[in-house]
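> example.struct
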């Protein structure tokens, strides 16, 4: 294989020249003003070496990628009981869809669609106050990234989501009607919006994803069991890109989780943790160039799990 440093640099150079970039998320106002010409990539290898290029050190809104960290915390808190409240199947629907909830008794298909992540937040609030849950999340992600306290929650983004999140409010209230939200809807959503508003760079995100690439340990410290790491990866593979998950598996063949900020966290098991960022999205709400970049990466490295 060619040196990974060269591959990463080539991909960033190639992405810089591509004009078709998709559409920046407009429904969350602060995200709409992020320049579409950004592109960053960071690859953290199992031995700890980091390769980064482009805007890899610029913080962006990780949005739904936070659903991976929230799921990890909720599994840590309640274990497999979580699966009584949320499923493990791809939805085949948009990330913010409400339709399946009606016939499926208010149980979301998986923890990576908005409805599922809102339930995950409600589960965390079964034991913690919102401020504690938000603090726990921030500490967790900072620790995973290697005690990086520049990682923060962008309050402007959280507030904008609170002001414009009518669909999420509908989802939460609808699930409350089925008895699958136990806490106060506003507090659950406030927690959810703060998680989505986590701001970090590709380098920080790839560092934070290290616990998923091996046996659940980072630098000798156990974050999750090896079995849990495998299972989170399985969910990322089957559900991490909403109704685009099949296509992501087909093109890239790695577990991955996207966010409408244009980031994708992807894991090459046993090999690397990868983060890419480009704000322009495809119709499913996934980064257009981010997916192209990952496609190039697996093509040149052979890292697909298949
Ligand atoms: O709740 C929302 O709609 C956003 N905060 C997060 C959505 C998201 O990132 C979906 N990703 N593709």
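> example.seq
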């Amino acid at each position: 294989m060619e040196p990974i440093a060269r591959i990463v640099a080539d991909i960033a150079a190639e992405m810089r020249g591509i004009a078709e970039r998709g559409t920046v998320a407009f429904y969350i106002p602060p995200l709409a003003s992020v320049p579409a010409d950004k592109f960053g990539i960071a690859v953290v290898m199992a031995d700890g070496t980091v390769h980064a290029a482009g805007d890899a050190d610029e913080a962006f809104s990780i949005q739904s990628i936070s659903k991976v960290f929230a799921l990890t915390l909720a599994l840590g808190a309640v274990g497999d009981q979580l699966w009584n409240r949320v499923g493990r199947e791809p939805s085949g629907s948009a990330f913010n869809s409400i339709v399946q909830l009606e016939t499926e008794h208010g149980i979301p298909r998986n923890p990576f669609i908005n409805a599922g992540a809102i339930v995950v937040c409600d589960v965390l609030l079964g034991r913690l106050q919102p401020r504690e849950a938000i603090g726990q999340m921030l500490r967790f992600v900072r620790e995973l990234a290697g005690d990086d306290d520049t990682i923060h929650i962008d309050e402007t983004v959280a507030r904008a989501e609170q002001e414009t999140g009518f669909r999420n409010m509908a989802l939460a209230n609808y699930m409350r009607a089925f008895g699958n939200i136990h806490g106060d809807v506003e507090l659950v959503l406030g927690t959810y919006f703060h998680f989505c508003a986590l701001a970090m760079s590709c380098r920080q995100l790839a560092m934070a994803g290290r616990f998923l690439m091996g046996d659940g340990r980072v630098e000798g410290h156990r974050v999750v069991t090896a079995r849990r790491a495998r299972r989170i990866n399985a969910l990322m593979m089957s559900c991490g890109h909403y109704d685009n998950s099949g296509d992501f598996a087909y093109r890239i063949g790695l577990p991955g989780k996207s966010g409408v900020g244009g980031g994708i966290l992807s894991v090459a098991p046993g090999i690397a943790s990868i983060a890419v960022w480009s704000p322009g999205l495809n119709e499913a709400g996934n980064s257009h160039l981010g997916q192209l970049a990952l496609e190039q990466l697996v093509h040149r490295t052979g890292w697909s799990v298949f």
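> remarks
The radius of gyration is 18 Å.
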